[in-house]
Amino acid sequence: MSPDHLATLSDQLVLAAILLYLAAMIGYALELGFGRVTETVRERRLVGVGGPSDDLPEPAPAPEPASWAPKAGLVGTAAMWLGWVANLGATLTRGLAVDRWPWGNMYEFVVAMLLAAVTVFLFLQVRYPVRFLGAFVGVVAAIGLGFAARVLYTQAGPVVPALDSYWVAIHVTAAVAASGLFIVGGVAAALFLVRKEGPSRLPSRADLERVAHRVIVIAFPIWTFAVISGALWADKAWGRYWGWDPKEVWAFITWVAYAAYLHARATAGWKGKAAMIVSLIAFACLMFNLVGVNIFIGGLHSYADVK
Amino acid sequence: MTLTDEEKTTSNGPAGLGVVGWLRWGWRVLTSMRTALILLFLLALASVPGSLYPQRGVDPGAVARYFENDPTKAEWLDRFFLFDVFTSPWFAAIYLLLFLSLIGCVLPRTMVHLKEMRRTPPPAPRNLARLPHHAEIEGDLASAEAYLRSKRWRVTTGDGWVSAEKGHLRETGNLLFHVALLVLLVAVGVGGLFGYRGNVLVIEGDGFANTVAAYDRYLPGSQVSPEDLQPFSFTLKDFQASYIGPGHEKQGQPLDYFAKLAVQDSPTAPEREFTLRVNEPLEADGALTYLIGHGYAPTFRITGGDGKVAFEGAVPCLVSNTSTYESECVIKVPDAAPDQLAFLGRFLPSTVPNGDQWLSVFPGAVNPTVQIWPFKGDLGLDAGIPQSVYDLGGHQNLKPLGKMTASPKPMAVGDAVDLPDGAGKIEFTGLKEWITLQTTYDPGRFPALLASGVAILGLLLSLLIHRRRVWVRVRDGGVTVGGLTRTEGGDFGEEFAELTKALEHHARAEVKDVS
């Protein structure tokens, strides 16, 4: 296949991924909406297989779950996997079409970042009971890809010489992976705030917090690495490892905000809700760094190619 | 910044405790987790204006433009250091307090940690079945002890029990991470004091020697003297750039550019060839030289009204449009007689006519031309006031020569134009390119890198390792294993299940060995 064909295929795969993620969202949402109600905030442990499953209080009588609800969930899962395959294919074919790492501009970055987020969700789903996240991760992925395709779209092509470096593979890949994890953490934290105490179709607040914390704890060192490798690259390309370029400033702010979350979690009076709010502020900083800095502020990281 | 996994409560203000009491109270407040948290928030918040307002350290030109556009507002912003956020006293106050708070937390915790590491694990609780993780196993104490020791648990034994503990590396990593941040701050500081940065523009064929005088802009650290500069030099032999051709959405985007240099690491060293590219700086004796930008320098021969050649050379033109490399040139000819001459020029690398105008459509020099606006009069260079070579502004005594039009007919290479009123002649003789370079020397680079590496390592240890305890107790002939994590998260449930299985397996294997 010629590069042009591959590039077109990549664009089509993005559209396919959007539709599949939407289908997944609907499937998961039906399961969530008509499925079982979680009764109390007492532990239904997420810790998985080895955790004690005894001494769980029997759920009080709740609306009878629809018999077809689990099937809708299965359809959702299938659509999510297919969407993931399409998303992966879109990134791979783009990379083949341009013959470089397929995250050289903002469009490609967002496509890869959502691929990372869905990967994280699917990985978690295999190991832990986190199907409830599916509807929300699905909608975020579909909207994100839609935004990328409508607003950020950039024709396949070479990058500027500054970006033509092996550091893309190191720095940007780390940023993509960390962002994907943070997205899942952000979704869980947002659900934590939406969910009140008491009966709900969502899992308990403790479970939601545990999911959020777990992904953030993994994402934070990766983000730290992304910032440090960015400094290494800046040292190679611009003659200084840290120069307070707007992108650097916001990467730093994001880092400090997530560090604040980790500390808040260990501070009396800040646990639970307050810490979750801090994590969402940190997530907002991450998103501003991605969207706001590229579009409104600019600076040396003007790789976005957004018109 | 205090450390995770810890809770401290701020005590209320002391009543009548005297100076020492107040100091102690202040120290306790400063080193409390809550204060550290607030300082972290402040640090993040204080960084925000640094991305919203132009910064002197990043883009001094943008700050100057801000002052031109809105002097009153700019002055007020400047009063609050908003153009120098990251070197401002209030930003320094926040991070110094934060690091003080960090030290106040790291020191005592290091002491505690050292004591903890030497301490033996606590004896087994009476009833292991009450622990969050517990299981009955087939086995015996001796084999359990041997197995746990072989898996590098810290083990003590007592009457009918074995106690084991693991995961001190969590706190080690935690402390390491925070100490690494302190070292990083020091490294950045050292770089600022003992390093320097200089920018220079070099035209093809010209040379550069690393001296203070050679730089267009030179920013030394306070502990750097001119003799400290590494004595390297080089000549710019050639510069080449290639761009994406027509027919693509990104037409004109650079594909690659490089500069061929002949470098001497010291005045006596042999000359070596070096190809300077973006991402591939030149290293000479610890100083790094980077390719930052490039542009065109048309060459001119200018003759005065008296018929004598008053100027001959290349004029670097500043790029005014980065997608077409349309550039603006200023030529000052103080040697022209009887009147001094000056020219404003617009350089178009790929010229096409557009109505009665001309414009550039591509950054490569496909059809290079220059449009010229001539002036004559007094350049005022004798007044002793420093002037920019890129600017004709402020010259009251220059009169336009002839009629000024918006888009005069451009000159191609080889063209000559006689100036009106017999003021002289200008010839466009050729085309060169220029590059801008930045040289940096930063002795804090490697310490900073090292500290960053240690910080990541510490972070990984502190986030991924969990402190956990396991006990084995024999009671009424049965063997019970109990486990506990002292920090949340992690998959201790799984680890515990595997451990109990391994303990049983190990016990069976030992029994076989004996029989």
Write the layout of secondary structure elements.
The complex is a heterodimer of chains A (307) and B (515).
Chain A: H1 3-34, H2 69-98, H3 106-127, H4 134-152, H5 167-194, H6 205-237, H7 246-264, H8 273-297
Helix pairs in contact in A: 1-2, 1-4, 2-3, 3-4, 3-5, 5-6, 5-8, 6-7, 7-8
Chain B: H1 18-30, H2 33-52, H3 60-69, H4 71-79, H5 89-118, E1 133-137, H6 141-150, E2 154-158, E3 161-166, H7 169-194, E4 196-203, E5 207-209, E6 217-220, E7 233-243, E8 254-264, E9 272-277, E10 282-284, E11 287-304, E12 309-314, E13 318-321, E14 326-333, E15 340-348, E16 351-354, E17 357-360, E18 369-377, E19 398-400, E20 411-412, E21 416-418, E22 424-441, H8 445-464, E23 468-475, E24 478-485, H9 492-514
Antiparallel strand pairs in B: 1-24, 2-3, 3-23, 4-6, 4-22, 5-7, 7-8, 8-9, 10-11, 11-12, 11-22, 13-14, 14-15, 15-18, 16-17, 18-19, 18-20, 21-22, 23-24
Helix pairs in contact in B: 2-5, 3-4, 5-7, 6-9, 7-8
